Amino acid sequence: MAEETKVKAVKEAKLANPLEASIDIATQQMIKRAQQLKIETVFDRAVDMKPCNIGMQGICCKNCAMGPCRLPLPKGGIEGEDTRKGLCGATPNTIAARNFARMVAAGAAAHSDHGRGVAETFLSVARKEAHDYQIKDYQKLVAIAPHLGVATTVEVDGKTQDRNLDEIALEVAEKAMAEWGKTEGELSYLKRAPKPLYEKWKKNGVLPRNIDREIVDIMHRTHMGVDQDYKNLTKQSTRASLADGWGGSMLATDLQDVMFGTPSPVLSEANLGVMKADHVNVIVHGHEPLLSEMIVAACQSKEMLDYAITKGAKGIVLSGICCTANEILQRHGVPQAGTFLQQELAIITGACDAMVVDVQCIFQNLANVAKCFHTKLITTHPMGKMEQDNVIHIEFDEHYAMDDAKKIVKMAVDNFQNRGTEVMIPPYKKPQVAGFSVESIEYHLGGSFRGSYYTLNDNIINGRIRGIAGVVGCNNARTKHNEQHITIVKELIKNDVLVLTTGCSAIACAMEGLLEPESAAVFCGPGLAEVCEVVGIPPVLHLGSCVDNSRILLAATEVVKAGGLGKDICDLPVAGSAPEWMSEKAISIGQYFVASGVYTVFGYSLPVEGAPVFKNHLYKDHEKLYGGMWDCEEDPIKHAQKMIAHIDKKRKELGIDKARERVLMDMADRQAIDL
Predict the structure, then answer these.
(1) Spatial distance between the Cα atoms of 407 and 423, rounded to a whole number of angstroms
(2) I need a labelling partner for 41 at 20 to 30 A (CA). Which of 1, 79, 479, 536 fits?
(3) pTM, whole model, 2 decimals?
(4) Using one digit for the tens of pLDDT, what is the confidence trace for 539-569?
């Protein structure tokens, strides 16, 4: 008995401290509730299981059965020649570069396969085979068609006429599908980049041939005994990451906009408090919006709402977690229940009648948590199944999308009556304005008839806006939930840096109230606050899900086109950040931002510390090749200050480091502006 008490005491001592685990009050309350109910969460597991230090340094190789080979740094550091090597003789630089490349491959595969699924559905729509979907934004269709080599006009009797939109849609769909496996040429979207950047890629031999080939190429060359040159391995990492950022992810964003509508600002809310005790609560979680678009429609249908009332509910509340949340938020204003680390907590409220998941960032432990409550956990993707017997699999078919959606929603409604009495929804949520896109930013800055990024550039040049930062990415249970995101973003906007955000970082900012226009007066420096007040925007612009990082690339390209701030993305006073990254997708994203010319800082750690030469290649050599470079900083204030220092360096190089005198312009002056 004494031994049992001792074991129990040890286990209790390893539970997470809610106040140390998160800065969010709702999350703290739900961690405490989970512990009271003796339900284990990711926060407890992070305390109980420490990470492998050698793996964190990137110097553990398990690519063949002679390993794993672990090459720890000597305690006193490396003096003279680095003699560490694996059984095959692989050096730390080779091992770290291979591991880095495989993370890029996995991340690029995840995002690009998302894009493939969207493209396949779009092809079905264009062929009139998926009747529950339709093209909602023909203007966007016509805008992207030329980038895929699709003509939008036709010559008839010597006159130019607009081409039939259905014909354009079908050819766009076919051209888009070919990007994953075409046998010759290069990705079509690469030439959307500024010309100097495209020429750098061409000179360095990193133009992607097709999306799938670059991922397979990495897996081949990282097989035992193939590529053993860290520079060559990193070159292929760059090519594959560009196939993601300027290929699969960008195609996903564009085709989703065409089918579901290009986002424009909407008002919504964020955090677990969006759930309602007297309503059926359906939560969608994952990354692909194909099914969730239909679930939105099903939850809002009179048929399902009337059915919910017959079961004793006052209605249906749909909310989201992770990037599926961002997708339906930016187009429909659907509230967000939380970030990646809150997925178990949403079930622990006791009010989640169904959680519907697809792919990426989904905890297998959700099944174990769901067993403790009445929640129906429903998987919907053929790639994403769980072994536990309490998980329901309803495989989504885009040809019967609404039928699948209604089946799922009905299951949630039927489950409403099975709730226990212990429902606890933390009463915390914040309003947010989200749904910004490249197009809507242009509209906000220039208006209906003179949309342009000129106004943004002008305010950067005159110093009201110091620069632009992209702050994106995940949560990581090895850091305090949301703290890095919020501290970095607040430091940036305090110093007049406009922030663009996506993914769980965007949800974290929403939960903190930073996506409200009114927050500018509270948190911003005087210049940025003035711009936000005049335009009516928040100082942190939510651009969507993690595949929508492509919007940041295109926004930067539009800034270059608007003029006055250099000829390439690397000339701009911009910087990127992933404060609490955890996914392999983040490494792919980071690499394609660096290769696009953006100084990119990661928080927590990067798996390169055990290979100093390889680390130097990423941190220093890349700037000479592409104009962008990697960096890593765990301290959030120092992290933000590094970004600001880079922005200031670029301002000085552009000759705009001194504030420009304000000039009152009359109508003649304004008419003379060349837009």
Answers:
(1) 25
(2) 1
(3) 0.94
(4) 999 999 999 999 999 999 999 999 999 999 9
